Amino acid sequence: AGASEHGSGQESAASPSGERFHETAGSSPPEPRGLARILVVEDEPSMRLICRVNLEFAGFEVEEAENGAQGLERARDAGIDLVLLDVMLPDIGGHQVAERLAAQGGPAFAFLSARAGRDDLRIGYLLGAVDYLVKPFDPIELGERVGAIVRRIRTGESERYRLERLDELQA
């Protein structure tokens, strides 16, 4: 819970998806469903399902795309807050999708990839990724990690975070 507002006894708090809501003493915060929309661009159906189930459980709305072309089309939806983007896609590679998203002023993106070398992460951040999630990952932690990414995007901290990660990788 955050600072008290206008002495009303209500406090402001943040949900896992970054939404601000008000709670009164003894009440539970409302579910953050529908507040942040995540587009998962992943060619493996089982990985898309794992992402969908766990992100929806964490309170996010989830859209899916099975290849880069679909991902670019669905990312044009003004309601997408974050694109989780696999690097190795069958048609248009994730790096090319990222370049196009950045050039078009599209939504923020984070890579979700098994490619976990230092150079892979560095390239991802150089392309503008707000984060880089390495497969395999703990599915239960996915919602928390995406919630942190969405909070950074909404508070304007994602660029600082990206540059800090990039500095660490170049050191």
If helices are DSSP runs of H or I spanning 4 or more residues, what is the number of helices?
6
Mean pLDDT equals 82
Query: Number of DSSP strands?
Result: 7
SSE-based structural type:
alpha/beta
Strand order of the largest sheet: 4-3-5-6-7
What does this structure look like?
The protein has 171 residues and is α/β, with parallel strands linked by helices. It is 40% helix and 19% strand. The protein has 6 helices and 7 strands; from the N terminus they run βββαβαβαβαβαα. The strands form 2 sheets. The protein has a 5-stranded parallel beta sheet with strand order 4-3-5-6-7, sandwiched between helices. Strand 1 and strand 2 form a beta hairpin. The longest helix has 16 residues. It is globular. The termini are far apart. 36% of the residues are buried.
Secondary structure topology:
Elements: E1 10-14, E2 20-24, E3 37-41, H1 45-57, E4 61-65, H2 68-75, E5 82-85, H3 94-103, E6 108-113, H4 118-126, E7 132-134, H5 139-154, H6 158-170
Parallel strand pairs: 3-4, 3-5, 5-6, 6-7
Antiparallel strand pairs: 1-2
Offer a few descriptive terms.
five-stranded parallel sheet; alpha/beta; two-stranded antiparallel sheet; single chain; globular
In short:
The chain has 171 residues and is of the alpha/beta class. The chain has six helices and seven strands, in the order βββαβαβαβαβαα.
